[in-house]
Amino acid sequence: MSLSLRIRETLQQDIRTLSENERRPIPWEMLWEDFYTKFESGDVPTIHYYSREVRYSVMRDALSKFYDAATDLVDHVRRLDELLSELLKCQWWPSRIGADAIVERAELLLRRIPKDTLHFPGRIDELPSEYFSGSQRTWGELKVASHLHQNVLRFAIFHVLNESHCRNSADKIFSTILNCVGEMIEASVKSHRAVKSRKSPVFWYIVKAFL
Fold it and tell me: CB of 184 within 8 A of CB of 63?
């Protein structure tokens, strides 16, 4: 699927139609907070903030789904992308900018991302051939390394829709997401190195490279 078509589909699936008296919704619903807090309803609703140890445990449990997706030699990219995209719920409000212009501007932003991203250390030459898009076992042909996550597409769309305002809010959101992804990578490294872990380092490598 072409990049422009992926952007268009992402935009269409997240956009909302407002009723006459409805207020404009917030652009993001962040499920990343599930890694940091626990909400308890009741007479007095309470938010409990996790300690670093508990947060790592919650992330480790969530990462088990990523590990299982990485074991799928045929469809691992789609499954990993779906899992990561589920952590960030988006809702766009109607914009004066037409869909074609949004897609075009978002694609221009995404085309600026270097194709040769930072390499994640590891014995990439030992990975199964199914993880590569070509005949060579190189980082440039590793499928998960060259794939643009759906959330990255969402970031580009958000940037286009908020070029003139909400910049401070966007910066805070991006910082939270980046910090969370960084902690997910750290948790996957710890899971990989765990003495009692029986899970293959090959699949953990794919998870880390994807994130």
Answer: yes
pLDDT digits (tens, 9 = 90+) for 88-133: 888 887 677 888 999 999 999 999 988 777 787 888 888 999 999 9
Structure tokens of 179? Answer: 């910090």
Angstrom CA distances, 64 to 69, 100, 105, 185, stand at 9, 38, 36, 13
pTM value?
0.83
Q: What is each CA distance from 32 to 15, 37, 121, 183, 201, in whole angstroms? A: 20, 9, 26, 11, 26
Domain ranges of the chain: 3-210
State how far the Cα of 204 lies from the Cα of 185, in Å rounded to an integer. 10
Per the model's pLDDT, the better-predicted residue between 69 and 162 turns out to be 69
Report the alpha-carbon distance of residue 22 to residue 173 in Å, rounded: 24
Task: Find out whether 40 and 46 touch, Cβ atoms under 8 Å.
Answer: yes
Q: How far apart are CA 57 and CA 163, in angstroms?
A: 38
Distances (CA, A) of 104 to 5, 120, 157, 186, 206: 10, 31, 10, 35, 31
